[in-house]
Design goal:
This protein has helices spanning about 15-25, 70-90, 150-155, 160-185, 185-195, and strands at about 5-10, 30-35, 55-60, 95, 100-105, 105-120, 120-130, 205, 210-220, 225-230, 235, 240-245. The protein is an alpha+beta fold and about 250 residues long. About 25% of the residues lie in helices and about 35% in strands. The relative contact order is 0.14. It has 2 domains: about 5-195, Bira Bifunctional Protein, Domain 2 (BirA Bifunctional Protein, domain 2, 2-Layer Sandwich); about 205-245, Roll (SH3 type barrels), CATH 2.30.30. The protein contains 5 helices and 12 strands. The strands form 2 sheets. Strands 1-2-3-7-6-5-4 form a 7-stranded mixed sheet, sandwiched between helices. The chain binds biotin.
Length: about 250
């Protein structure tokens, strides 16, 4: 990954460049990195603050030999790779909130956005977008975001080298991807569970079908989360926003 690399200054979103490249036939491992995104995208149609030179804004092309319904597993794999590499380089206490937010003391420092193109069940490609708020200062964020977002620099009180972080992430990613291709999702799910901060505490989850309150217990092999409701029943949620602990 990253052997073929496109480094840009200002772009709309690295997702757009990587998607175009994938549609033009670029192979798995193609990586786009930008200094700034004018229209950085987050999950659920949200934006992503991506000021010049302050973070890692990158997208990679994947062509995994798995059906489309395995895409959520790759999101979780990416979260594990990010969490492990961030912990290693920064020594900060980084944890994962389901499905793929990386948090330090409850505040978000990194996000992952997977966009896939498929024909029927066949996956054509995935564009995996990774945003890491590395050296942003407090005044780089809109004020209302500061409660929920943080950068590595704010959390550690010192700046970090982006190249070192990217290299550490790609190394972790490649090792885990190899493991996934050889042994499937189970070993990745176990790693994910060991890094999760969102298990074992009662939360409110907002799903497309309505709200569910309960205690997230474990990952389902599909990448969904299993939540124990107050009446003792277990529900499996594929898509939901997880609130703060109740
Ligand atoms: C989220 O947590 O909502 C996902 C954020 C993903 C942000 C990254 S930055 C690089 C790539 N390009 C984008 O426009 N988004 C992703």
């Amino acid at each position: 990954f990253g052997k073929k690399l496109l480094v840009e200054g200002e772009v709309t979103s690295t997702q757009d460049l990587a998607r175009n490249a994938a549609e033009q036939g670029e192979a798995e491992g193609y990586l786009v990195i930008a200094e700034q995104q004018k229209n950085g995208r987050g999950r659920m149609g949200r934006g992503w603050v991506s000021p010049y030179g302050k973070g890692i804004w990158m997208s990679m092309v994947l062509r995994p030999p798995v059906p489309i319904h395995c895409a959520p597993q790759l999101t979780l794999l990416t979260a594990v790779a990010l969490c492990r590499s961030l912990r290693r380089v920064t020594e900060l206490n980084v944890g994962i909130k389901w499905p793929n937010d990386l948090l330090i003391d409850g505040r978000k420092i990194s996000g992952i956005l997977l966009e896939s193109a498929a024909e029927d069940e066949r996956l054509k490609h995935i564009v995996a977008g990774i945003g890491i708020s590395v050296n942003l200062a407090a005044n780089d964020y809109p004020e209302e975001m500061l409660e929920k977002a943080v950068s590595l620099r704010i959390a550690a009180g010192r700046p970090f080298d982006r190249t070192e972080l990217i290299a550490a992430f790609l190394k972790e990613w490649e090792e885990l991807y190899e493991l996934f291709l050889q042994q499937g999702f189970r070993p990745i799910a176990e790693l994910w569970e060991s890094l999760a901060v969102s298990l074992g505490q009662k939360v409110l989850l907002t799903t497309p079908q309505g709200e569910v309150s309960g205690v997230p217990e474990s990952l389902h092999d599909s990448g969904a989360i299993r939540v124990r409701r107050e009446d003792g029943t277990l529900v499996t949620l594929f898509s939901a926003e997880m609130g703060e602990p109740l």
